[in-house]
Input
Amino acid sequence: MVQQEERYKGKGLRRCKLCGNSRGMIRAHKLYICRRCFREVAKELGFVKYG
Output
């Protein structure tokens, strides 16, 4: 019987750079930040809120 290899793929692999959360990831522009952290850091990154 062959041992199962560890899987290194899927949503759980990508984690937030700031808090380590793997849910609600913003990957656009290669940010890799969760949506909660993005709200805190968006102005510093140069994003502007419209509306």
